[in-house]
Amino acid sequence: MRMLDLGFVRTNLELVEKKLRDRGQDPAALLGDFRELDQRRRERITEAEHLKAQRNKLTEEVARLKRSGQDAGAVMEETRALKTRLDELEAAASESEEQLRAILTRIPNLTRDEVPIGRSEEENVEVKRWGMIPDFSFQPKPHWELGAQLGILDLERAAKISGARFAVYWGDGAKLERALIGFMLDVHTREHGYTEVLPPFMVNSKSLFGTGQLPKFAEDLFRCTDDEGFVPGRVRDNDHWLIPTAEVPVTNLYRDETLDDAKLPVSLTAYTPCFRSEAGSYGKDVRGIIRQHQFQKVELVKFTRPEDSDAEHEKLTRNAETILERLGLPYRRMLLCTGDTGFSSAKTFDLEVWLPGQNLYREISSCSNFEAFQARRANIRYKPKGQSKTAFVHTLNGSGLAVGRTWLAILENYQQSDGTVRIPEALVPYMGGQQIIEPRTGA
Q1: Known catalytic residue: 363?
Q2: Which of 186, 240, 263, 368 lies most in the core, judged by the most C-beta atoms within 10 Å?
């Protein structure tokens, strides 16, 4: 249950502290008494090894005395006392080990050296831009106005049946969502070489621990009340949580397994609904469908050899960008700074799509290289060719894309002066030949 190797942290404690400061976090608060705990653990292990050697010698002495018919009682008593002390030392070392593991579970991944140091999204670095910002002869509207006027987006009835941050799609709105899912999956499977998988939409605590959501982000998740509740520090395999992203079930497909080196990289794509409590986002994006408790997403997940993960990260990011380019949606790629990089990630590119109705770019995909962080937590290994020992794979993922945000980006970028919305050419076959979304009639 370790996300960073204990030996690595012990040997590179100053580097770990620096990387935590780069993230804007307090090393003392996260690491606590790591150094002292580790020192005590090693001292107890050393003393235990010394006592084991003594015990072995005493055991041999007891055998010799018995063979010669001499009284071995005093030596046997000394042996029992040694065993008692050994048990105490091993229990203390085990307790220190558990405390160290608890510390390791709350330390985020170490960001790559090329990740810019910064505290917030304001310090992310733009890497590239693609596409022309549309020039409208009228004032473009935000998607929540367009959706309501077209009768395809209903936030009021969604609030009635489920509460805030839910949406109902009607008619062509629902059809467009379905078309986007099919289009994304087809491009990724037919052109990019991903294997489609349909995973469960509920997972257990062990799965969320493996990808790094637990224990740190429990309040951002929806837990099913089918057990005694989540206990920090415990991970279980018989409880259930709604998935926040397909990354969780898809990555954990190979938990506690050793992958075939010859079959790497493994590239998987999955459509799932996603569920997030958005506990820390009260008051943010209250209009429209930017930030929802439930939304649809097509996810890309890769398992690679460590030496290939940089190239595969770039390839995965380009795969996500291809969807935006096929749909003619202007976007930019951002390299996230240390303070904005996710807990499990070593390096992340965000793709941000242009939204003319809001006159800004918004994130539509995060493409991350987790290196061995998740693999170590989930125990996902491979056996390098020509080597006798196994090693941890590198895991990567990214949205390919967030379907709801793609939906609203199409509405805002393809809106017409008469209030209709054009269908991007690439989606016309998935819409049954339909080229325009017009106001819906009927109930």
Answers
A1: yes
A2: 368
